[in-house]
């Protein structure tokens, strides 16, 4: 039989996992932090020389992204602190809360964009320096695409609400920058300056859609919705792979907090099994589940068979 890890070893392994996870997510969020800082400066300068309301919308959007990404960076560091006396289940929900706050900021940006667009609809005017504006918006979308692809890959591995929210937000940024570039191209070809505020309104719609997606993901975790069926099926398969160790299992419950899964269930052992052996055998199941879900917290309630 495989040897079960000792408690000090488990604690050391958990601390090392937290350290690696914190480093990975911090590095991931530094990319959008730097790229947004550069894009804010460039877009504000472009708006100053062009007067395009859609470019201003993009500049405000990027400025909000910069602020929110900084907040996400702090939230990730807080969420990955080890459990303590006041937070026995860890600090994972800080990530969920920060994702929900991010959704509110995204929605606020959408409202500002709508306000600017409506003002320009009442007094339309052709933007200046269209070629420069088109080049900057296309460059912005390309830069954001490469950063988004990196963030999305890390978010898929880490299952971090903060990184998932960041990836969703950046995907919206790509489409909004392309939308502005497309609008400026149409204005250059046709001279229809009314396109500028219309594009801004379309951008607002995309921003609201991104805010909704982030909100639903955060609310799902904050309200302790069970893990997706495919994940629960994987957990059940792992338990049943160790069927020779127990009689039956029941009352499987799952939820997510931050990037970690919380899993508990009842395991019925043969009545003659000594408690020490039963505990060691159940630990084999815990280790197997954590190999598949490295951030999982697994609790098994041992029971004698009926």
What does it look like?
The protein is mainly alpha-helical. The chain has two domains: 216 residues, Cation efflux protein transmembrane domain (Alpha-lytic protease prodomain-like); 76 residues, Alpha-Beta Plaits (2-Layer Sandwich). 72% of the residues lie in helices and 9% in strands. The chain is built from eight helices and three strands. A three-stranded mixed sheet has the order 1-2-3. Helix 1 packs antiparallel against helix 2 and helix 4 packs antiparallel against helix 5. The longest helix has 44 residues. The protein is elongated and about 85 Å long. The two termini are 26 Å apart. The relative contact order is 0.13. The model has no long low-confidence stretch (mean pLDDT 80).
Produce a short descriptive summary.
72% of the residues lie in helices and 9% in strands. It has 306 residues and is mainly α.
List the helices and strands and how they pair.
Blueprint: H1 7-50, H2 53-79, H3 93-122, H4 130-158, H5 161-190, H6 195-222, H7 229-241, E1 248-257, E2 260-269, H8 275-292, E3 297-304
Parallel strand pairs: 2-3
Antiparallel strand pairs: 1-2
